[in-house]
Each structure stands twice: as structure tokens, then as C-alpha cells.
Amino acid sequence: MNYFESQPMKYYSASASMSPTEKRIKLESMIESGDYIWSRKYDGNWSRAVITKERAALQTRGISVKTKTYGEIQDKVFFWDDVVSAFPNGDTVILAEVYLPGGIDKDCGSILRCLKDKALARQKDNKLEWRIFDVLAIDGIDMFNTPVEERVSYIPEVVKRINNPLVKGIEYHEMDDNFFDDLAEIFADGGEGCVCYKKDAIYIPGKRGPHAWDSLKVKQEVSSDIDCFILAAVPCEKNYNGGDIGNWQFWENTRTGQKLIGDYFGDYQAGVPIIPISKNYYYNWPASITVGVYDGKGDIVELCKVAGLTEEFKTELRDNFNEWKMCPISISGMMVSTANANADGTGISIRHPILRSIRREDINPADCTLAKILN
């Protein structure tokens, strides 16, 4: 296996159509089975260290248009030399979150998107950490087909060998009767949530596992839906940054600007002047919508950006945006963030928002207020 080109495994999330009660029942059944372990999820950027005798790289999840493979960030962190020197005896593959203490994923990402010197300078007072959550190969021993319960048992040894204070190991726990109390503590601490794994789950690149519910991401959700209204359509990014470029269908000729759809990866590899583009860009769809509410003075304040829209809705926004501006909608999300809020609540945002329903027929924009959220 070419570890450098291997696609990251995906993880299950509960369907947005599941009610909180249904999600709770599913988690209770996982506890009763005794077949699961779990670990806290930190709000950082996914990374993969691949170390071979010929090459070593700290890769990101996204595909670089320039290199046509996974992005590399090893020159933008302070722990990398110790990681490489700890594994001289054969192929090693380690998964970890690059994490900024006290920050969230976008804070970490803003550093890693900088050029090397600026990225390092921005860590003068708060360096990026590396929090290991899986070991897929060590010293030439491939463990992709090894159960996750056994793979993660190598984490303490890996951390000890690296011997750098910026490198930490994620702890795993039995999913037992203490699970909901532990999860509540994570949320109370401002944490993102956790990931549950079936103990015998193997790592399958590009897939979610051989069976449903082999893994499950559990994130905090607001207790009730939030009423707000549409303010703007957010333009999409042009470049495709996914991990399945070999099967991608949307391209653009860089000389003519012509958009193409079809199997052009072979031409791309052969040097034809084309680049992969996002599906949103191909269809001129917005990436997301900006939503807002009225504050206590009657002024409109921006609340957050909501992505994950259906293709039908994105087409409507593209073709008839004026009909949708100020349209009331209901959203849910992971949590209400007050990190940038003023004393009156202005500046709050909803983390990981999800569109629940269009409410243009049953409420007015005036019903969407900051006070309702704060209460």
C-alpha cells in the first residue's frame, strides 16, 4: 500500500433526521452491547504522519491542486523532527489532530494555511500540539486490518518514543454507564464531543467501515431549534480540495476557462492544462448562506454561516436569491458560542449549524431575535 496516497477513513454521524431521543436510544444500545470504546474529540485539524526510509511527511486531509496529492505541513510545526527520529526502523503511519490550545479548528487552520515562516511566527506564544488518536503502522508492521482497540493500545508507546511535550496521546475509555456523565463534562468544558468505535473495527481507507455504526461522532447540539433569516449567499471556492481526485468529475481548462464534466483525471496526470474544481463552482452554486437575527435595538446582526444545503436549494438561491433574502428559517447546531460576544449578546454564533426547515409561511423575520436565543 502507498501510505502517502491512501484516502482517510470516514466516520459515521447520526442522521440529521434523528431526533435527540432516537440518538440517545442508539447510544444506550451501544453502551449495553459492551462492544464500544470512545475518545474525546478535539477541535483541531486532521493530520497523518507517514514515515518511511525514503520520505517523511505530515499530511492534511485536503488535496493540493499544486502537488496533486495531500497537502504537507511538517515545516509549519515545532514537533516534527522528534516524530521522524523516533521511528527509524520501518514504515510508520500515525493519525493525530493538530490542535491549538484554547482555539478551534479555524484558528488552527488559519496558522497552517500561512507560509512556513509566518506559520511558525504565529506560534510564538502558543504552539500547535499534536494529539495522537490512531496508529495504523509502526516499525514496518501494517495494522490497517488490526482492530481499533489493539491499534490505539500503541499510543502510549508512540508518545513516549517521540518524547516531545507538544505531542500527546488521546485516551480511550470503555463505553459504559459513565458515558453520558463523561460526555456532559466534555460539553461543560467547552469540548466538541467524542468519537465512539466498535472495538473490532478495522481501518478502511476512503470508507466508513465494513458495517454501519462501526464508528459514531457525537457532538453537542443546542437544546432547541433557532429561528433566524437569510442575509446573503456566500460564494463558493473554486478549487476542489477533496480526497477522491481520481474519480472527480468537475474540471476547468486553465487556458480557455471552459468548464468540463467527466473522467479527465488521466488527462490531468498527463499534463493537460486542466484543474479539478468544486461542484459548487461548476454549477455557480453558493457554498453556504449567512443568517442573522434582530438585536434588542432592532438592528440586524449576523449569526453564522450555514452550509450543507441541498442542491435544489442552492439552485434556488443561485437563480432567485432576492426571493429568499430575509426568509425565516430554523437551524440547529452543536452549541451557542459566546467567545466573541459582547455583554448584550451581540457577537454570539452557532457552531456547526444545520438547516432544519424553511419557515417563510409561519413566522416573520421580526420573530427572529437575539433575545430568543439568549433565553
Describe the structure.
With 375 residues, this protein is of the alpha+beta class. Helices cover 22% and strands 29% of the residues. It has eleven helices and 21 strands. The strands form five sheets. Strands 2, 3, 4, 5, 6, 7 and 8 form a seven-stranded mixed beta sheet that branches. A five-stranded antiparallel beta sheet has the order 17-16-12-18-21. The mean pLDDT is 90.
* CATH class value of the largest domain: Alpha Beta
Q: What percentage of residues falls in helices of 4 or more residues? A: 10-25%
Kindly identify the CATH topology of the largest domain. D-amino Acid Aminotransferase, Chain A, domain 1
Largest sheet: 7 strands, mixed
Q: Any low-confidence stretches, pLDDT <50, length ≥5? A: none
Structure summarized in a few sentences:
The protein is α+β, with helices and mostly antiparallel strands and 375 residues long. The protein folds into 3 domains: 3-219, D-amino Acid Aminotransferase, Chain A, domain 1, CATH 3.30.470; 226-235 and 285-374, Nucleic acid-binding proteins (OB fold (Dihydrolipoamide Acetyltransferase, E2P), Beta Barrel), CATH 2.40.50; 245-274, no CATH class. 22% of the residues lie in helices and 29% in strands.
